[in-house]
Q: What sequence folds into this?
């Protein structure tokens, strides 16, 4: 199955936007200024870092022959590097370091959502591939 890459990247972007929206809402910041702009601004350094690391790690595609566990491990390891880079970019943008609880929640929460999203997509692809091969 040759899944368009925009589906993978679009899902990744939605994960970052969802996490940023949840974070802003939990701090009562969701209604501060234009809602979408605040969410995009919060997600941008992390998505940019993820795009760079995921592209470099060749996570811009899903291999239908690999197990979801393999994909989850690769995604988690890549996110660790990307998350740290995202925290650095955020700190440079805001002119102050990220508090440790924020950094920990961001690394764990966003990483969990990324692994979950990509794992579910991998399962869906494997099932479609299996069904397609069974038809032959």
A:
């Amino acid at each position: 199955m040759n899944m368009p890459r925009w589906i993978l990247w679009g899902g990744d972007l939605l994960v970052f936007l969802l996490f940023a929206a949840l974070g802003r809402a939990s701090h009562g910041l969701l209604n501060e200024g234009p809602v979408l702009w605040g969410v995009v601004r919060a997600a941008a350094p992390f998505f940019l870092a993820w795009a760079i690391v995921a592209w470099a790690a060749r996570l811009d595609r899903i291999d239908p022959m690999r197990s979801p566990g393999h994909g989850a491990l690769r995604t988690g390891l890549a996110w660790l590097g990307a998350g740290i880079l995202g925290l650095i970019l955020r700190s440079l943008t805001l002119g102050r370091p990220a508090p440790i609880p924020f950094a920990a929640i961001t690394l764990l929460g966003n990483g969990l959502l990324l692994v979950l999203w990509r794992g579910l997509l991998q399962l869906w692809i494997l099932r479609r591939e299996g069904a397609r091969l069974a038809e032959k």
About this structure: The chain has four helices and no strands.
